[in-house]
Amino acid sequence: VSALSQLGIFDEVRVLPVYRHMFADKRKSTQGSFQDRIEMCRLSFKDLPNVTVSDQEEKCFHWVTKRRNLTEPLQTAKLRVGTANLLEMLIENEPNTDFTMAMGSDTFKDLVDQKWKRADDIINLLCGRIVVFARKFNEPKSNMSCQDIKNLSGLCDDKQEDDDIYILNTYIEKVNQKFRDDVKNSYISLHKKDKNPGTNNRSNERKK
């Protein structure tokens, strides 16, 4: 979160604590109420610029409940709301915002291995805008090029030529100047230049 905030690339960095985990064992092991976790995150990130701790996962649960007309407690108890649902809600509510998702390399591998519910939908809803941080305990980053990831995610056809997947090959340990420089250089080396640089000053600029 610190790294993303200090890069100056994104208009806003949102932290979304999980409201109700997809897996029962994870739900049982989660400590603290959702509101407690929201408040802990707010305390943790309160000094970081452009960082917002959001309850949008909870809002998404109720959004899906309403759309499916689920009114009975037994119906909502069985409801599983995933990342694709969250993205659909965000895009519907904020059509002028380009959302990017940040995750660790191990989580990304699960995504492209189809271990996530509606994995392809998630990638398509993001238009390939994914930031991947290499985990210190997980070294396959050196064997996974940006094109490899595009091939794995199905974003290698002609229509997706301009979609970006950002792979930041830097360990997330502490935010110092060298770390920020490494992350920024990794981003610049993989980010395709805007075909029309002047568009960033438009009054209807899309948020990132």
From TrEMBL:
The keyword Membrane does not apply. It comes from Eucampia antarctica. This is Uncharacterized protein. PANTHER family: NICOTINATE-NUCLEOTIDE ADENYLYLTRANSFERASE-RELATED, PHOSPHOPANTETHEINE ADENYLYLTRANSFERASE. Transmembrane segments: none annotated. One of its GO terms (molecular function) is ATP binding. Pathway: Cofactor biosynthesis; NAD(+) biosynthesis. One of its GO terms (biological process) is NAD+ biosynthetic process. Signal peptide: none annotated. Keywords: ATP-binding, NAD, Nucleotide-binding, Nucleotidyltransferase, Pyridine nucleotide biosynthesis, Transferase. It comes from the Eukaryota. InterPro entries: NadD/NMNAT (IPR005248), Rossmann-like_a/b/a_fold (IPR014729). Coiled coil: none annotated.
